[in-house]
Amino acid sequence: MIPKEVFEQTLLSFLAPVKAYLTDPRVTEVMINGPDEVFIERAGRIEKTDARFPSRDALVAALRNIAQFVGRSADEERPILEARLPDGSRVEAILPPVAPDGPHVAIRRFFREALTVDKLIEINAITADAVQMLSAVVAGKQNIIVAGGTGSGKTSLLNVLSGFAAEDERIVVIEDSRELQLFGGHVVQLEARPPDARGKHAVTIRDLFRATLRMRPDRIVVGEIRGGEALDLVQAMTSGHGGCLSTVHATYPIDTLNRLETMALMSDVELPLRALRVQIASAIDWIVQTARQRDGSRCVTHVTEVQGYEPERGFILGDVFHRQFEGIDEYGRVRSRLLPTGNVPQCAEVLRGMGLEVPRSVFEAAAVKQR
């Protein structure tokens, strides 16, 4: 086994053309479009760089080295690589022949300094009242989906939310490629494995999920729901496994539930559509919606309670916090505020009975709404 430190030094030599960006704390993504074109995302904005790789072979060699680090392959027979760098940064690469002008590579940076609640409040990504609401529902073991588009801050927010769980809880984390840096003293990290060169020995998210149910988890965290594992998660949530957390790619809270429905239908279990929708509405308690704004900033746009399902109305949602946009300031920054809507969550009394408090501003907004 080659030591991690040796791999890290070797990889940095292969990635020398972009090394400066991989160590720049302001850079959140490095995008390589073949050997001659490199873009980066810095402070939320994409810019082209002067970086170049010596040749296509040099770039392919770097990718094969990364693949070796995670025990995978990258070649013409397996042209899609999902991997990570030694510091945890996520790598997604597509090689020729399916990328004729490639390889094309996207490296999502991993930061050793975890994002904190205070930092999120400072940058107006969320408010102290919304944090209080979310800390209560996490501590109360409500099931939460963090939804948003690519690069909207879903994973970072999920890391923060995990910090509201009790220190003694056993949290089992399931991911395709390890990204999450969960807070807590009892965290079990599991990672899916793709098939080998013969198409065998794959370990899927669904395989890991089923095994996890017998590992006495207090909470299950699925890094991202992408397919049929959605039904497994929904059924676990409705069978006594409270406090589950996961992320989904979706634009609005209602889209999140519709996407979960679609992905659950991708499983090998046939359920009547109405029964599935009732299960989803029963399983998911909250949706926290994130978005990336035109100025590159990332923020929470909705904190939404899932209140049920009715055949004639569909999924019933109640926004407890909603972001109001107020235009652009003189520096080109988006001006907005995350405010309580006046909807009191249905779970307020349950939380109060557990010694957890809903923010006073939620009730004050409700009183104003009733006038």
| Strand-residue proportion | 25-35%
Structural class: alpha/beta
Strand order of the largest sheet: 9-8-10-11-7-12-13-14-15
State the order of secondary-structure elements, H for helix, E for strand. HHEEEHEEEHHEHEEHEHEHHEEEEHH
How many DSSP-defined strands? 15
Oligomer: single chain
Q: How widely separated are the two ends? A: 69 Å
CATH 4th-level superfamily of the largest domain: P-loop containing nucleotide triphosphate hydrolases
Count of separate DSSP helical elements: 12
Q: Domains counted in the coordinates: how many? A: 2
| Average of pLDDT | 91
Tell me the name of the CATH class of the largest domain.
Alpha Beta
Q: Main sheet, how many strands, which sense, barrel?
A: 9 strands, mixed
Contiguous runs where pLDDT drops below 50 for at least 5 residues: none
What is the CATH topology of the largest domain? Rossmann fold
CATH architecture of the largest domain: 3-Layer(aba) Sandwich
Helix content: 25-40%
Description:
- The protein has helices at 4-14, 19-22, 56-69, 117-122, 128-139, 154-162, 205-212, 229-237, 253-264, 273-283, 348-353, 360-370; strands spanning 27-33, 38-42, 45-48, 80-84, 90-94, 104-108, 144-148, 171-175, 187-191, 219-222, 245-249, 286-292, 298-310, 314-328, 334-340.
- The chain is an alpha/beta fold and 371 residues long.
- Strands 9-8-10-11-7-12-13-14-15 form a 9-stranded mixed β-sheet, with helices on both faces. A 6-stranded antiparallel β-sheet has the order 3-2-1-6-5-4, covered by helices on one side.
- α8 (229-237) packs across α9 (253-264) and α9 (253-264) crosses α10.
- A hairpin with a 5-residue loop joins β14 and β15.
- It folds into 2 domains: 4-108, Beta-Lactamase; 117-370, P-loop containing nucleotide triphosphate hydrolases (Rossmann fold), CATH 3.40.50.
- It is globular and about 70 Å long.
- 30% of the residues lie in helices and 26% in strands.
- The model has no long low-confidence stretch (mean pLDDT 91).
